[in-house]
Amino acid sequence: MLGAKVPPRLITRLNPFSKTPTRLNPPNPNQSPLLFENLLHLLKQCASTKQLKQIHTQMLINSVDKPNFLLPRIIDLKDFTYASLLFSHIPEPNDYAFNVMIRGLTTTWQKYQLTIEFYYQMKSLYLMPNNFTYPFVFIACANLLELNHGRAAHSSVFKTRLDKDGHVSHSLITMYARCGELGFARKVFDEISERDLVSWNSMISGYCKMGCAGEAVRLFCEMRTDGFEPDERTLVTVLGACGDLGDLSLGKWVEGFVIENKLEMNTYVGSALIGMYGKCGDLSSARRVFDSMKKKDRITWNAMISGYAQNGMSDEAMVLFDGMKEAGVNPDKITLVGVLSACASIGALELGKWIDTYATERGLQHDIYVGTALIDMYAKCGSLATALRVFEDMPQKNEVSWNAMISALAFHGRAHEAISLFKRMTEGCASVRPNDITFVGLLSACVHAGLVDKGRQLFNLMSSSFGLVPKIEHYSCMVDLLSRAGLVHEAWDFIQKMPEKPDQVVLGALLGACRKCKNVDVSEQVLQLLLELEPANSGNYVISSKIYANLEMWDDSARMRMLMRQRGVSKTPGCSWIGNEDQLHEFHSGEGSTEILDVIKLLYEDLKIEGYIPNINSV
Fold this sequence. Notes:
The chain is mainly α. The chain has 33 helices and four strands.
């Protein structure tokens, strides 16, 4: 690899304009220092690689051997090939040359693996890494999740007595946090004797990026108690944590802090505020911040569109998307994912197809996130074949892509195909590890197809083969599956094993199954839980009354109706809609003109002629 090996001392040097070595005159000890000063001045002023090569040529011609002056300027101009070539022809690079290259590899070119290689190469030449070396090495380890190399470098930090250096400590916190070792990150933070704002920001950001929003907020409060005022980075990080926690009050405090201290509502702070309000469901505040921003870039538009899409306001998301295009802001993959989510919610297939074409024209259709959103959109808009086509055409698939396709097949009642795709996912070339969302999709497929035995097998497979702990969603699927199959006692057993209290949807499904199976024992226990959750839901009382009526337990049936009246619960009247051309007509039970009632009587007479017999068992 270019630049990966330091050559021995060379007699020849490379001319920047030639691929053949050019033998140079030995350095002239009487060379005027004025020439070097002029070249150095030109070096600072040059704005392109072409100009820099001309200066380099003059340095070679005049035997001015100063590669350490050239390297930083080449890195500033982001020419990796030229920098590597120059470095490889330094006979004996010192620690400065290595540090400049390590910094460039990490921050300019993001070639993190080469950063680590250069670090070990530096040590092999018995050059001592210092406080200009380690921060970039730790950043590289953080981005590569190379915990072992990071720990080894941390050990060297102690040997060189750099563990008290602020820059080294900050990068160490970032490295450990990114690698999932928050305990070690916090230990480094706690051992900093004199913390500055960067120390606090590093630790708060570490918590937030690893999903520990609560710890991030607690540390932010501790930082304020210690007398530190947050800066822009702090505020953006904390707003992200507030969104994850749904902590609207702290999020509003941050906005108040920005206004009170007359801080600039730039794109980073503004977008973070919009994102926080969106996650907390306060879309009016999000839109207020959005409209107040004088400058809106793509990040700002994306935050507002995503906020609408995530809160089911699909029409608003699509109107804003049109506004974004009219404003001349080009959508990116984040925009497309947000709008595709909105399309999926309301079945806007035509706009979804337009986005598919737009993504293809810009080479974004193979992005994992865009492809996954396309699968979800096509499936929810009823175009399963197209969803499958998008899935099969994806060059790379992660667990989210597989989960989207499995859920799509389940949604369309194609249970056996969903299970077959799961086998492809976990076996053979794919070998992607499933997660809890995978099994929600699989169990949902079993529910739609009534595959009770397969559902039991998959539920047990979660823990036995993949070490996954079933969550309430998985128990809910099993209760629904067993309820539909009439296995009410087994379903009730599942409810009692749930890690959390069941919700009204699960209990409602089981209560409906109890009515179908005429099971009073389980229904009474289910009803007790339902009345605690939804004391004002008339459906629970009505179904229970009908269960008793079906078993001719008239006193109990009447008791449920009486209890309903005593609690002031009224049955929501039945409602239906009829579309006629461009108008939608709504009808409620018990309402209607004499003409409508006459038509209903005529329909009822026709039904009797056709042999219809009403079911009056529960009346």
